[in-house]
Design goal:
The protein is built from 2 helices and 44 strands. It has about 500 residues and is mostly beta strands. The chain has 2 domains: about 100 residues, Immunoglobulin-like (Sandwich), CATH 2.60.40; about 375 residues, TolB, C-terminal domain (Neuraminidase). Strands 1, 40, 41, 42 and 44 form a 5-stranded antiparallel beta sheet that branches. A 4-stranded antiparallel beta sheet has the order 2-37-36-35, with no helix packed on it. Strands 4-5-7-8 form a 4-stranded antiparallel beta sheet, with no helix packed on it. Strand 7 and strand 8 form a beta hairpin. The radius of gyration is 26 Å and the shape is globular. The two termini are about 20 Å apart.
């Protein structure tokens, strides 16, 4: 099995140098265009790939979180997230640095107990299944169960875990039950949904201030558009969301931020995550692309009024592999976690399929070009009800793109079988600019990722087996780095490697 973190040994550009003399300097410069042709060939023949690393294996010790099922939040170099289980039995809130260091469990929700009136209750909520909001030193989130009535809660937690405040306990039919979708922030107002409850027991949209005041139900759903399940996406004065599809077809919907104007934009057959929204379009997933299951999900776009624009990607059909006991394909299947839009590129995950049948991470341009599988989750071993592997399996949550990296969670697997937090480094391949000879040395420049580690290496002949380091590892302090390499041989070849 491949290692979880790999050094990129990349002959991105190879530079042949010849020590120029007064008579040969012009000839040396004229040979550089010919080198470009050879370098281009070497580049295309090299598999670059991205660097995948596991930042956290859940279930390491008693009280640790288990089974992260919601997206992470990136804020000022720190990742925040939840686990649905673990801790004291009812889930956790955690934080860690973006490099995986300084992992802390900030909150362990109390165990729930049977209540003959209100199902399963506790004082503060249980099972945080929705995403978090992090702002001004506080974390805002929801629990899908527990609280005094067993219908879920909204909470506020300081980012250091020092203070916890219950902002709202849901009351089932009057104001909603089971807030599965997490929260969305606009100014000082939090928007959210409950999947059940409300006046019709079909779910609600609510708002409240970040201090817990002014809780309002701005929409009660009905049988025609029932059971909103994911977080809401705000675009101007519009809210976009997705229903659960538990009792039939799910649908993408739109309503105004004051709760009026609810309409169904597009119905689908199975589960999906909340759409990614640009200025003019929605980008959506659908876990089954057709009624006969001819493809294992798709990515598509539509405009703000629900008019279909394009099928961006149809995932390949799954084929059962008896040697591993899983259904596999080349790209993944059942994309239910929703998409994240970064520039003109979409990032997402699939819960099944891929090389080993445990899901994939992918990226694709919004016009459908450039589809790339960034990760096939690895083969797992079964021990009772627990499946373990090196990297995680069954990713269920939306990804987070921050800088030149993608962060996400796998709900199961990892070395303890309780899920993982992972990072995929998307730093561009290091690319040396053409060197300038000055005196007895070459001067190099290259675009760099601040904090990234780079190394220049040399061969005097490509038939040699080993590359020789040209000086120590260079840690980039600027986005454009420079280095000087003394020349002690008549000719040679340079390359650069990137060490994340």
């Amino acid at each position: 099995m491949e290692p979880l973190a790999r050094t990129r040994h990349m002959p991105i550009k190879l530079f042949l140098f010849e020590k120029p003399t007064k008579s040969s300097r012009a000839r040396t410069l004229l040979t550089l265009p010919h080198l470009c042709i050879a370098v281009s060939f070497l580049f295309s023949a090299t598999a670059l790939g991205q660097t995948f690393s596991v930042l956290k294996h859940f279930g390491e010790s008693a009280g640790d979180g288990e089974n992260p099922t919601t997206e992470l939040v990136y804020a000022d170099g720190v990742l925040y997230g939840t686990t649905e289980y673990g801790g004291n039995g009812s889930g956790t809130v955690f934080r860690m640095n973006a490099d995986g260091s300084n992992y802390q469990v900030l909150k362990r929700f109390d165990a729930i107990a049977a209540n003959p009136t209100y199902y399963w209750t506790n004082s503060e909520g249980a099972y945080p299944e929705g995403g978090l909001v992090v702002t001004n030193g506080f974390i805002y989130g929801t629990t899908s169960d527990g609280g005094a009535t067993g219908s879920g809660t909204i909470f506020k937690l300081s980012t250091n875990g020092g203070s916890f405040q219950l902002l709202k306990t849901f009351l089932d039919l009057p104001d909603g039950e089971r807030p599965l979708g997490g929260l969305t922030l606009s100014g000082n107002t939090l928007f959210g949904t409950t999947t059940y409850g409300g006046s019709n027991d079909d779910g609600t949209v609510f708002t409240l201030n970040t201090d817990g005041s002014n809780f309002k139900i701005i929409r009660h759903f009905t049988d025609s558009i029932p059971n909103p399940k994911d977080h809401l996406v705000i675009a101007g004065t519009n809210l976009f969301g997705i229903t659960s599809g538990e009792y039939g077809s799910a649908c993408f919907f739109r309503l105004n931020t004051n709760g009026t104007g609810l309409i169904s934009l597009h119905s689908i057959f199975e589960e999906a995550g909340a759409p990614a929204v640009s200025n003019t379009n929605l980008y959506c997933t659908h876990s089954i692309a057709s009624t006969n299951g001819a493809a294992e999900g798709m990515i598509f776009s539509m405009d703000m009024n629900g008019n279909p624009l394009a099928v961006i990607r149809s995932f390949a059909s799954l084929v059962f592999d008896p040697t591993i006991g899983k259904s596999t394909n080349s790209d993944g299947g059942y994309p239910q976690g929703g998409l994240v839009l970064s520039g003109s590129k979409l990032f997402g995950d699939t819960q099944e399929g891929g090389t080993f049948g445990y899901g994939t991470i992918f990226s694709v341009n919004t016009d459908g070009t450039g589809f790339t599988v960034l990760r096939h989750f690895g083969l797992a071993s079964q021990s009772g009800s627990i499946q373990t592997n090196a990297d995680g399996l069954l990713p269920m949550a939306r990804l987070v793109v921050a800088g030149n990296a993608v962060y996400g969670t796998a709900s199961q697997g990892g070395i303890h079988g309780q899920g993982t937090v992972f990072k995929i480094d998307l730093a561009p391949a290091p690319s040396l600019q053409y060197p300038v000879f000055s005196g007895s040395q070459f001067n190099f420049e290259w675009p760099a990722i601040i904090g990234g580690k780079y190394k220049i290496q040399i061969k005097t002949n490509l038939s040699q087996t080993d590359w020789v380091d040209f000086g120590p590892v260079i840690t980039a302090s600027n986005s454009l780095m420079k280095s000087q390499c003394p020349v002690s041989s008549d000719q040679g070849f340079f390359r650069m490697i990137y060490q994340p």
